[in-house]
Design a protein that fits this description.
The protein has about 300 residues and is an alpha/beta fold. About 40% of the residues lie in helices and about 25% in strands. The longest helix is centred in the N-terminal third of the chain and has 24 residues. It starts with a helix and ends with a helix.
Length: about 300
C-alpha cells in the first residue's frame, strides 16, 4: 500500500478515535434537532442532515427531529395567490393560511420520514396534534391578534418516550391544538425548546443560516465556540445580539435553565455540520452551556489553537 493511501486511512482512524469519547458520553441520551433554514430547501444539504441524524441514531443517540417549513409555506402562499398580512413583522395566520400551512408542513414531514427510511432507520412523523403532544394557547404580538399562532403550554412527553423506547426516530411537525381543539401553527424554535425541556434532552441543536453567535456581529472572525448562560445574558444586555438571533438565544438560555445540558447553534449550510459539532473537539458552531458545565474547548486550548 502506498504511503499516501496509508495516510488517508490513518486520518480516518484518528477521526473515529476523536469521536469515541463523545459517543461514550452521549450513548442512549436524547438529542433534539431543530431542522430549518436553507438546509431544508437544498436537496443535497437535506440529505446530509438526515444522514447525520441517522448516524447519531445508529451509534446510540436517541434523536428527535423538530422541523420548520416557513420558506415552503411562503412559496405555497404565493402559488395560490393569497395575500400575506403582517402584524409587528410577524405573518398573521388566518384560517385559510393555517389550512395551507398544515398541509405543507405535513408534506415536509413525510418527505423527511421517507429520507430516514431510505437510510435504514425506522422513523415516525407526527404533528403536535397527535396524542396531544403539543397543547397550546393563542399567542398575541404586543397585545395584537396574529391569528392561529400558538404558544406551547404543555408537552405530552410520553408520546415521544414511547416512540424512542420502540426504537423509532420521531419527526415532529410544529402544529398543535388548544383546549377547544382548534389547530394552531407553532414557531419551530419554540417547539424544539419545549420538547427538549420536556424530555430532559442532553443536547438541543439548532440548524440555522448563520455560523453561530458572534462576540461582535460585525466581525465575522469573532465566532464564539462555547458560551455560558451568564456570558449569553451579558451579550444580550450589552446589545451585541439582535435580529432573529435574539429570540433564538433567549430560547437557548431557557432550555439550559430548564435542564438541557447543551444547546448548539449551527450553520445548516455546512455539510455534516451536526457531526462536526458533536464529534470533534472544537466543533464548528456555538455551544451554549450552564455556568457550571465542563467546557470541552478551554480558553488555554483556544489560545493554543490561535
Amino acid at each position: 500500500m502506498e504511503e499516501k493511501e496509508m495516510q488517508k486511512i490513518l486520518q480516518k482512524a484518528e477521526v473515529l478515535i476523536e469521536a469515541l469519547p463523545y459517543i461514550q458520553r452521549f450513548n442512549r441520551k436524547i438529542i433534539v434537532v431543530k431542522y430549518g433554514g436553507s438546509a431544508m430547501v437544498d436537496d443535497e444539504l437535506k440529505r446530509n442532515v438526515i444522514e447525520d441524524v441517522t448516524l447519531l441514531k445508529l451509534v446510540g443517540f436517541k434523536p428527535i427531529i423538530v422541523h420548520g417549513g416557513g420558506k415552503e409555506i411562503s412559496k405555497w402562499v404565493g402559488k395560490v395567490g393569497m395575500e400575506p398580512e403582517f402584524v409587528n413583522g410577524l405573518r398573521k395566520t388566518d384560517a385559510p393560511t393555517m389550512e395551507l400551512a398544515e398541509m405543507v408542513l405535513g408534506r415536509v414531514n413525510k418527505s423527511l420520514v421517507q429520507l430516514v427510511q431510505q437510510l435504514g432507520v425506522n422513523a415516525i412523523g407526527i404533528s403536535g396534534k397527535d396524542g396531544g403532544l403539543l397543547k397550546v394557547e393563542k399567542k398575541y404580538s404586543k397585545g395584537q391578534d396574529i391569528g392561529y399562532v400558538g404558544e406551547i403550554k404543555e408537552v405530552n412527553a410520553k408520546v415521544l418516550y414511547d416512540l424512542l423506547e420502540k426504537d423509532f426516530l420521531p419527526i415532529v411537525c410544529p402544529v398543535g391544538m388548544d383546549d377547544t381543539f382548534e389547530t394552531y401553527n407553532i414557531n419551530a424554535d419554540d417547539a424544539a425548546c419545549a420538547i427538549a425541556r420536556a424530555v430532559n434532552a442532553e443536547k438541543l441543536a439548532f440548524l440555522t443560516d448563520v455560523k453561530g453567535v458572534y462576540q461582535d456581529p460585525e466581525d465575522k472572525t469573532s465566532l464564539i465556540s462555547e458560551l455560558s448562560v451568564s456570558e449569553a445574558h451579558k451579550l444580550i444586555e450589552d446589545g451585541n445580539i439582535g435580529g432573529g438571533m435574539l429570540p433564538k438565544l433567549n430560547n437557548c438560555i431557557e432550555a439550559i435553565e430548564d435542564g438541557v445540558s447543551r444547546v448548539h447553534i449551527l450553520d445548516g449550510r455546512i455539510p455534516h455540520c451536526l457531526l462536526l459539532e458533536i464529534f470533534t473537539n472544537k466543533g464548528i458552531g456555538t455551544a451554549i452551556l450552564g455556568d457550571h458545565e465542563e467546557r470541552f474547548f478551554t480558553a488555554a486550548e483556544m489560545e493554543k489553537e490561535n
